[in-house]
Hints:
Blueprint: E1 16-17, E2 24-25, H1 35-63, H2 66-86, H3 93-112, H4 115-136, H5 143-151, H6 156-159, H7 162-192, H8 195-227
Antiparallel strand pairs: 1-2
Helix pairs in contact: 1-2, 1-3, 1-8, 2-3, 3-4, 4-7, 7-8
Amino acid sequence: MIFLTGATSALDAPPVLQAGSGEMDPRADVRLPKPTMIARHGLPHLVEATIIPAVLFLVVLHLSSFTFAALAALAWEFAAVSRRVAAKQRIPALLVLSSVGLTVRTAVAIISGSAFIYFLQPVIVAGVVGMMFLLSALSPRPLVHRLARDFCPLPPGVTALPGVRRLFLGLTLLWAAVNLGNSAFTYWLLTSQTTDVFVAVRGITGTALPVVATLVTVAWSWRVAGREGLRAARPV
């Protein structure tokens, strides 16, 4: 997806005329952060919200029981959120989503008494999300096109560019494949391996696959942005 930075977005910036045409250039004042800036900003949040809880779960599982392992991972999420609330800091969206998801998973698993249900829930969610991406690719506005508005409100003239529209479609198909593949592989892992093996392998693949897909998304967006003449943001 294509991102905006700076205090003023392209929607607020004064329009610029295209040379010799008398028409407004929709790409004027669009700012794009460098991929390295995005990685430095997002990677710590990913580690905090996903990797650490998985490692904590595995350690406590070896030392105690499934219930205590699930509660330990959930306690980490709550502690991370509480720390930011106490310090009056912004809570990352990824941390909010992971906390809510883990709370529901833990509650359902403890009530049912089934570790299988605890691990099955994200498999179902990933499958549903993957199908949503895939089906939206058949519409005039793929899901990534809609999500882009939440991250960077680009002017209609920019989102209408042929290269940007192809980017949205390609990224929608990419994330459909990521979610569906992740769901299928995790289900196979869950039904064929022990809990220890599942948690260890899932902790690696569940993090590596989205990270790789995110890097592809950023690199692809960066390339299209350059080809379409969108200007990169200056380092702050």
